[in-house]
Write a structure and sequence with these properties.
Strand order of the largest sheet: 3-2-1-4-5-6-7
Strand content: 5-15%
Radius of gyration: 21 Å
Oligomer: single chain
Number of strands: 13
Structural class: alpha/beta
Largest sheet: 7 strands, parallel
Number of helices: 15
Shape: globular
Distance between the termini: 10 Å
Order of helices and strands: HEHEHEHEHEHEHEEHEHEHEHEHEHHH
Helix content: 40-55%
């Protein structure tokens, strides 16, 4: 346990005893079920398990996340809220953001007066108005940071991080994210807690097939965006075909609303390469486990920084070899797992080479993947994540010292 960022796991129990019956207002910028939003759902579950009242405000009136929150007992109170984007980081963009904030302000103030929360839990750094209102109204704020893009210019990272100065406590999802944040805001370290993502594994882990026969079954899960690299996965399948390897790829995920041209481009790539029989687009699914169970290996081909790597961890939990790019949080997410191979980003040829390496040493990679799954389940146990997040929220309300590190974080470094 790293004493520079907190005390030990047991110390936080006193905070939880002090804050029975809390009312938490929890906010998220969207209603989907990818990455940070899935972690938001886990955080809500942990707060509810602590016996707290959790009121959830999301600017979107519908979406799969809302149904999951209701099913767990959270109260939904949607109100408009501006979401900070990099495109706002210019004079015209800042004026537009200000206009959105002024229009949303009355509804957010009414919600705060009605709910009277003891603490506001803000998921991601792109909801600045909630941090401003919390500080102005004297309500403690916890901000959970899931962003970590070291390749972004420092001045942009600093601008995006400015609202965090208004938060009493900050949770970051990886040591990489902590380094990125404190590089832009060095004084934030004393308010930060590293809590590794809690990820529930499949209901039952199905072993990879013992005899690897063609066609080889590959799987990509996650949002469809250029930075996530699904196009590189498609190109790897084309290269494998040229090398005489019959590989099939399932793409499980959808685009962010408004980014439909990305999917159209990927479909054109498949058609132009003559891969219609080898690549399937399956869209968004609420559970990736059946698709990972049907796969021989998972591809995580991100091109730019990832704050962590939930999709890589999900594949490891499903006992599947993982081929991921050697960048930022993906290195941290796959550290210590022998069934994971790392390749250069934006290098489909390297992905194809790694796939062939897995094929050539299948018995070894199969054994590694099966041994990795229970270790990943321990490292990312949802119950431990729930307790860690609840403890930071409790410390924010009680005013005690921050209890920083998740029980598994020292294992990941």
């Amino acid at each position: 346990m790293n004493s520079a960022h907190g005390r030990n796991w047991a110390d936080g129990q006193a905070d939880l005893r002090k804050v029975r019956g809390l009312t938490v207002l929890a906010t998220n910028p969207n209603a989907d079920l990818y990455g940070a939003s899935r972690m938001f759902l886990e955080s809500i579950e942990g707060m509810l398990a602590s016996g707290w009242r959790v009121v959830v405000s999301i600017p979107q009136p519908s979406g799969p996340l809302l149904h999951e929150i209701e099913a767990r007992g959270g109260e939904l109170r949607p109100v408009p809220s501006p979401v900070l984007r990099k495109t706002y980081l210019n004079v015209r963009g800042l004026l537009r953001l200000l206009g959105l904030a002024l229009r949303a302000l009355p509804a957010e103030i009414r919600l705060l007066r009605d709910v009277r929360p003891d603490v506001i839990y803000v998921n991601t750094i792109i909801q600045p108005l909630w941090l401003v209102l919390g500080r102005c109204l004297g309500i403690p704020v916890v901000c959970h940071v899931h962003e970590g893009e070291a390749s972004t210019p420092r001045i942009v990272r600093k601008a995006l991080s400015i609202p965090l100065a208004l938060a009493q406590r900050v949770i970051v999802n990886s040591h990489f994210s902590l380094r990125v944040l404190t590089d832009a805001m060095p004084h934030a370290a004393q308010r930060c807690a590293v809590v590794l993502n809690g990820i529930a594994g499949p209901p039952r882990v199905e072993a990879p097939r013992a005899l690897l026969e063609e066609p080889l079954r590959l799987c990509y899960t996650g949002r469809l965006s250029e930075r996530k690299g699904p196009g590189d996965a498609i190109e790897a399948v084309r290269l494998l075909a040229l090398r005489g390897v019959d590989a099939r790829l399932d793409i499980v995920g959808a685009v962010f609303p408004g980014m439909e041209p990305v999917e159209e481009s990927l479909r054109r790539q498949v058609a132009d390469a003559g891969l219609d029989e080898r690549v399937r687009f399956l869209g968004f699914v609420p559970s990736v486990w059946p698709y990972l169970a049907a796969a021989d290996a998972a591809l995580v081909p991100s091109r730019t920084d990832e704050s962590f790597g939930n999709t890589a961890v999900e594949a490891i939990l499903a006992a599947r070899p993982v081929i991921a790019t050697r960048i930022s949080g993906l290195v941290e997410a796959t550290a210590g797992f022998d069934g994971a191979l790392l390749v250069a980003p934006s290098a489909p040829g390297d992905i194809a080479d790694a796939v062939q390496q897995v094929v050539a040493h299948w018995a070894e990679f199969r054994a590694h993947a099966m041994a990795d799954a229970p270790r990943a389940a321990h490292r990312h146990a949802p119950a431990a994540y729930h307790a860690a997040v609840a403890r930071v929220v409790a410390a924010c309300v009680a005013g005690g010292p921050i209890r920083a590190l998740c029980h598994a974080s020292s294992q990941a470094t």
